[in-house]
Amino acid sequence: MFVREMTRPECIALVTASHIGRLACARDDHPYIVPIQYAFTTGRLYGFSMPGQKIDWMRDNAKVCVQIDEFADRESWKSVVIYGSYRELPDTNQTHHERLQAWSLLEKRINWWEPGGLKPAEQSVVGTSPHLFYAIEIDEMTGRAASAEPATTS
Ligand SMILES: Cc1cc2nc3c(=O)[nH]c(=O)nc-3n(C[C@H](O)[C@H](O)[C@H](O)COP(=O)(O)OP(=O)(O)OC[C@H]3O[C@@H](n4cnc5c(N)ncnc54)[C@H](O)[C@@H]3O)c2cc1C
Questions:
Q1: CATH number at residue 14
Q2: Structural domain harbouring 67
């Protein structure tokens, strides 16, 4: 197996093609990681969530990491790591437009709200739901890809 660095366009292609990542945050020297669904646009990811531990932690410490991968088999995979900053999109005059943009990108996937909107013992996000939208501003992105054969440069 051969492992190589991915170019930035390759990283962006993977992040664009996928919609599931693992979001890591940290508080008081403790890491916390959960799978999330996201929508990518230039320079940032958008996400949807209910209040809870990850939102509390990211409000305290906005520095986060998101990992996204494509796994064919043990010798064939791609993985991107994004270092970024959490930014909430409340429904205010200042962020209303961006919140709608996040919503319109996320809703391209069927049942997009379900994994972020449902929790144990909670049934629905309709009505006066406290759901929220957020952005992860991408500060840095790295990628590695593995293949059975060495990559050709032509
Ligand atoms: C494919 C997929 C896509 C998802 N997409 C989204 C999304 O877009 N937005 C979103 O908000 N959530 C999404 N989820 C759910 C997400 O992984 C979390 O379970 C959820 O957001 C609750 O996180 P929280 O920090 O608010 O937990 P809380 O409800 O505050 O609960 C915290 C406690 O529950 C435990 N816990 C929470 N989530 C998990 C988990 N996934 N696995 C094991 N233990 C857990 C924690 O360890 C902690 O003890 C997705 C899950 C999957 C599998």
A1: 2.30.110.10
A2: 2-117+127-147
Give the integer Cα–Cα distance in Å for 9 and 80: 12
- Evaluate: CB of 43 within 6 angstroms of ligand 1: no
Going from the Cα of 36 to the center of ligand 1, the distance in angstroms, rounded, reads 8
Q: pTM for this one?
A: 0.93
119 lines ligand 1 (CB under 6 A): yes
Residue 17 main-chain phi, psi, to 5 deg: -70, -30
pLDDT tens digits along 40-87: 999 999 999 999 999 999 999 999 999 999 999 989 999 999 999 999
d(CA 57, CA 116): 16
Query: Does residue 152 fall inside a structural domain?
Result: no
Q: What is the number of domains present in the chain?
A: 1
CA 61 centroid distance within chain: 16
Helix, strand or coil, per DSSP, at residue 100: helix
